[in-house]
């Protein structure tokens, strides 16, 4: 039987009071529930009193996770209700909690708007989905443990022994908008399912869009249909939201464009017409952005199917209007992509949003000059591109230069095979400077493995859809987080294409095995576009360090690069929901065999999160408010790593240094049987091709006659 919210809150108050009776060192004496606020009839879910005095220290609102308001601790009505009650009681802090996540808010700060006051969290508390889950012993133990730790933390906060760990403004915006979008997504999903069962034509159009445009699985199964409808609802609502956000950003440049918040539609159809009219107005005033505002896509109609869509989307528009987008300098669209597109969807296409902390580290190693030409061959929502833009601008300012927005855009290229991520990248780069008239980022919707060195790639450059060409050649940096698609999911014809591509680009070198995951080919194909001493940096699966298919990649890297560093973290995910351990690989093209063999490779295992390591290395927190200072800090961390010449073992990382010559020599001596830990044999085509290449490992690579068999590089990271 589901647990009543009132009962659970009473239990929590009892547990907290028991903790306070045992912990006499804490300055709190009692937790109470179901109390009416001063001057109104609304109740407090939870009130914490000062020890020895009838003074309220903290108030909060608690919702069960399956309550509509409990879907997120950032649900607007939940936050506003908690804020109103805390203001009336005069507490410095208040909280919202849906059992799963806990968020602490600052009640008042002089001169700071409500939406911009400090927020700490979300803090994970217990793994729950429904109200039934709170009856589990493990959940109750987690809740008790959390509250004892939180009371310690609150006391330290009040006594000045720690500061509130403020959530960055862009993350705060993303979480609030995520909570607001849950209702229109649910309404769209329900309406779409109902319509599909009643309208065969709509059902056919939806299936065609799902299969031909999105590449989703088609099935007569009702379970698969429901899953696809939910994905379609979430994707279409998110796409509409990004357009609404972009519209609000565009209004900063064109004040005459009418605000969205002024619309008063009476029906969902009227809302759709009003939004389209606003978008047309934006196109007219800007003379630009038709590809953003007029997608001509079946999915764009879906968010208006629900009869109450006009009410739900007005709430979303009001949330968007509350934020000053001029203050959101980081990758807001990428963060929204991470938060709002479900993990199943991202795993299906191997797309994951990457944390700016690791992106900036990779870019610091790979982008050394303000005019560096940069490519992200699987750009997704555009995080690497946005951070490359910021870095290049900061490097230019350091030299006293002021490159234009268009000049910066002309030196940054993104490629993605999917329409939606490519559009996100375009928006994400365009909003870096919305005041510029010429504002078409070089983002191409295409399969990266159809791109060829020196062959022009078309991209849209004007309102009428005309194109110009991008030529990829002699790039300074290739960076990114390649898709995570296992080789089992690659069709045989596609594998043949990758094999032919490698042979044409790297004749005489050992090709990747047919069992290589897709990211291996991003290394090899990406290298073809690099200049003689260009840099390459990727976040990938750690698998290539110790597996048979990875041994082929090792050989390729040893023959073509100085391997600067290989970095693995055991303490944090560099992006959510990826079910593989990841590693950062940092490389520089090096044509000289002697220079490659003399290079020192740094195998680094991180023992603390990157943000903490930055603080340790810099003797203070990295600068988050000034982009030029942040990039200077990243350079300092990069230089610190590159200066390492011997083993290090600290509380924040362990570094094992190995000469590149040693890696090569050991890989040549390793018996073939010891080199492979995979049960599957190579495919026959691989065996024939590699046999033909045997003995030809010399001249073009200049490594000598020995054949590289493989090495267990994981031992250097973890041993």
3D architecture notes:
The chain has 719 residues and is of the alpha/beta class. Helices cover 45% and strands 15% of the residues.
Summarize the structure in short.
The chain has 719 residues and is of the alpha/beta class.
Question: What is the strand and helix layout of this fold?
Answer:
Blueprint lengths: L4 H18 L5 E5 L2 E2 L6 E2 L1 E5 L5 E7 L13 H14 L3 E5 L3 E6 L12 E6 L12 H22 L10 H30 L1 H14 L8 H29 L17 H19 L3 H4 L15 H13 L10 H9 L2 H7 L6 H11 L7 E3 L6 H16 L6 H6 L1 E5 L2 H12 L11 E4 L11 E4 L6 E4 L4 E6 L11 H14 L12 H10 L2 E12 L6 H13 E9 L12 E8 L3 H6 L1 E7 L3 H9 L8 H16 L5 E2 L3 E7 H10 L2 H4 L8 H10 L20 H5 L1
Parallel strand pairs: 5-6, 9-10, 9-14, 10-11, 14-15, 16-18
Antiparallel strand pairs: 1-4, 2-3, 4-5, 6-7, 7-8, 12-13, 15-17, 16-17, 18-20, 19-20
Helix pairs in contact: 1-3, 4-5, 4-6, 4-9, 4-10, 6-9, 6-10, 7-9, 10-15, 12-13, 12-21, 13-21
Can you give keywords for this protein?
719 residues, alpha/beta, 10-stranded mixed sheet, 6-stranded mixed sheet, 25 helices
Q: Please outline the major beta sheet.
A: 10 strands, mixed
Unreliable residue stretches: 343-351, 673-704
* Secondary-structure class: alpha/beta
Helical residue percent band: 40-55%
Give the number of DSSP strands. 20
Name the strands of the widest sheet in spatial order: 11-10-9-14-15-17-16-18-20-19
Distance between the terminal alpha carbons, to the nearest Å?
50 Å
Please tell me the overall pLDDT: 82
The number of helical elements comes to 25
* Rg over C-alpha atoms, rounded to the nearest angstrom: 28 Å
What is the general shape?
globular
Strand portion, in percent? 15-25%
């Amino acid at each position: 039987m589901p647990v009543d919210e009132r009962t659970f809150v009473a239990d929590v108050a009892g547990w907290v009071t028991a903790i306070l009776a045992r912990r006499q060192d804490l300055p709190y004496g009692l937790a109470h529930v179901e109390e009416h606020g001063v001057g109104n009839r609304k109740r407090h879910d939870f009130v914490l009193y000062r020890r020895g005095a009838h003074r309220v220290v903290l108030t909060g609102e608690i919702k069960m996770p399956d309550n509509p308001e409990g879907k997120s601790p950032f649900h607007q009505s939940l936050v506003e209700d908690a804020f109103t009650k805390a203001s009336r009681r005069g507490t410095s802090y208040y909280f919202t909690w849906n059992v799963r996540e806990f968020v602490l808010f600052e009640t008042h700060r002089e001169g700071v708007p409500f939406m911009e006051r400090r927020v700490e969290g979300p803090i994970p508390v217990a793994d729950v989905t429904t109200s039934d889950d709170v009856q589990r012993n493990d959940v109750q133990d987690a809740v008790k443990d959390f509250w004892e730790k939180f009371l310690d933390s609150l006391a330290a906060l009040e006594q000045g022994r720690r500061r509130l760990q403020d959530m960055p403004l862009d993350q705060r915006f993303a979480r609030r908008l995520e909570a607001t979008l849950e209702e229109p997504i649910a309404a769209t999903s329900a309406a779409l399912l109902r319509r599909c069962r009643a309208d065969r034509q709509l059902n056919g159009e939806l299936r065609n869009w799902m299969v031909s445009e999105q590449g989703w699985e088609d099935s007569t199964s009702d379970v698969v249909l429901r899953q696809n409808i939910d994905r379609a609802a979430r994707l279409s609502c998110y796409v509409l939201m990004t357009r609404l956000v972009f519209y609000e950003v565009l209004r900063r440049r064109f004040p005459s464009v009418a605000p969205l918040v002024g619309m008063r539609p009476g029906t969902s159809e009227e809302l759709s017409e009003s939004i389209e009219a606003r978008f047309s107005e934006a196109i007219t005033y800007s003379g630009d952005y038709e590809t953003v505002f007029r997608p001509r896509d079946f999915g764009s109609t879906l968010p208006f199917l629900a009869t109450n869509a006009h009410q739900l989307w007005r709430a979303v528009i009001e949330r968007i209007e509350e934020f000053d987008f001029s203050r959101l300098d980081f990758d807001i669209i990428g963060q929204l992509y991470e938060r709002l597109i479900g993990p199943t969807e991202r795993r299906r296409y191997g797309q994951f949003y990457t944390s700016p902390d690791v992106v900036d580290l990779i870019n610091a190693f790979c982008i050394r000059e303000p005019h560096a030409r940069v490519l992200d061959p699987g750009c997704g929502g555009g995080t690497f591109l946005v951070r490359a833009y910021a870095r290049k601008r900061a490097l230019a300012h350091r030299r006293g230069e002021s490159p234009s927005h268009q000049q910066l855009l002309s030196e940054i290229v993104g490629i993605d095979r999917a329409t939606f991520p490519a559009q996100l990248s375009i928006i994400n780069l365009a909003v870096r400077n919305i005041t510029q008239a010429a504002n078409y980022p070089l983002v191409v919707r295409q399969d990266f493995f159809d791109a060829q060195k020196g062959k022009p790639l078309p991209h849209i450059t004007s309102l009428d859809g005309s194109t110009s060409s991008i030529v990829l050649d002699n790039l300074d940096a290739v960076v990114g987080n390649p898709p995570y698609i296992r080789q089992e999911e690659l069709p045989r014809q596609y594998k043949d294409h990758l094999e032919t591509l490698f042979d044409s680009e790297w004749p005489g070198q050992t090709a990747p095995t047919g069992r290589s995951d897709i990211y291996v080919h991003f290394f090899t194909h990406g290298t073809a576009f690099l200049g003689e001493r260009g840099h390459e940096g990727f976040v990938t699966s750690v698998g290539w360090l110790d597996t048979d298919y990875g041994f082929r990649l090792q050989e390729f890297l040893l023959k073509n690069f100085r391997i600067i560093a290989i970095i693995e973290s055991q303490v944090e995910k560099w992006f959510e929901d990826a079910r593989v351990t990841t590693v950062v690989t940092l490389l520089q093209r090096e044509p000289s065999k002697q220079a490659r063999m003399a290079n020192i490779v740094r195998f680094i295992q991180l023992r603390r999160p990157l943000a903490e390591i930055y603080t340790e290395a810099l003797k203070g927190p990295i600068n988050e408010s000034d982009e030029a200072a942040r990039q200077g800090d990243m350079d300092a961390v990069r230089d610190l790593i590159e200066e390492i010449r011997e083993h290090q073992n600290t509380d924040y990382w362990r570094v094992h240094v190995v000469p590149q010559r040693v890696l090569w020599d050991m890989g040549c001596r390793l018996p073939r049987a010891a080199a492979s830990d995979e049960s599957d044999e190579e495919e026959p085509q691989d065996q024939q091709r590699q046999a033909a290449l045997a003995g030809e490992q010399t001249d073009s690579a200049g490594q000598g006659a020995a054949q590289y068999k493989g090495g267990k590089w994981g031992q250097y990271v973890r041993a």
